[in-house]
Amino acid sequence: MNTKRMTGVAILIVAGWAAGSAPAQTTNPAGVGDWISLIREAEGDGVPAAWTESFQKRCMASAITVLQAAPILAPVRQAARQGLPQKPIQDKVDEGLAKNVKPEALASAAQTRLERTGQAAALASRAGYTKDSEGCNRVTLATALALDAGLSKAELKPILDRGGGRRAGIIESVLGTGEALVRAGYRIEAAQAVMRDCLDHDLRRSEILRLIRVIEQNSHPTSSIPELRRALWGDTDVNAGAKVD
């Protein structure tokens, strides 16, 4: 019999079944054949075997059937087929499984993350990050998370265009700062202003990563943009590193 490689989980299940460990009344315990087919197809699409094995284990531990798992896995498979970064969708699936989100809701969340990943990848590509490069993947993930937080494509495009060509770690950190501010309750306009300032002041990544602490200590979500900028840069707004360092 000419077969492709099975995942470790499927092998164990099949071995146990052959040894008689499965209940005598069932001919396909836990949908073993269906699981094997689903995982093989996903790996054929380009989903890494290590992740599919973990996905199967976690689904089975949560009593998620193969029929329920298939639509959860579908957005990851689609990302692989389209050449999109899979990690943003995989992260959403992993998060949902860890939180015991209902399968139908998790499938919907994964599909939404796929759509945002497609939008994010297009923005990253237009900003000059080469498709399939590590830098593009990092910027795409950060952009997808910012979209998840509530920032729109129209609000993120000027930031990516402004920062285009810079190291991916810088843009990743800038976008992460904007995402964190929006999630903390700051207005979109305030998050945009801080992201623009990070780029205009040419902050180092280490400085950008310290911004959230400075903002939390010296401002409030209701602060106006001038108040927020004074908290960050001081009254003169000349030396960007003054408050951050």
Summarize the structure.
This protein is mainly α and 245 residues long.
Characterize the structure shown.
With 245 residues, the chain is an all-alpha fold. It folds into two domains: 1-82; 110-245, no CATH class. Helix content is 71%, strand content 0%. It has 14 helices and no strands. Helix 3 packs parallel to helix 5. The chain is elongated. The termini are far apart. The model is unreliable at 1-30 and 236-245 (pLDDT under 50).
Layout of helices and strands:
Elements: H1 8-18, H2 32-45, H3 49-61, H4 66-82, H5 87-98, H6 103-126, H7 134-149, H8 153-163, H9 168-183, H10 188-200, H11 205-209, H12 211-218, H13 225-233, H14 241-244
Helix pairs in contact: 2-3, 2-4, 3-5, 4-5, 4-6, 5-6, 6-7, 6-8, 7-9, 8-10, 9-10
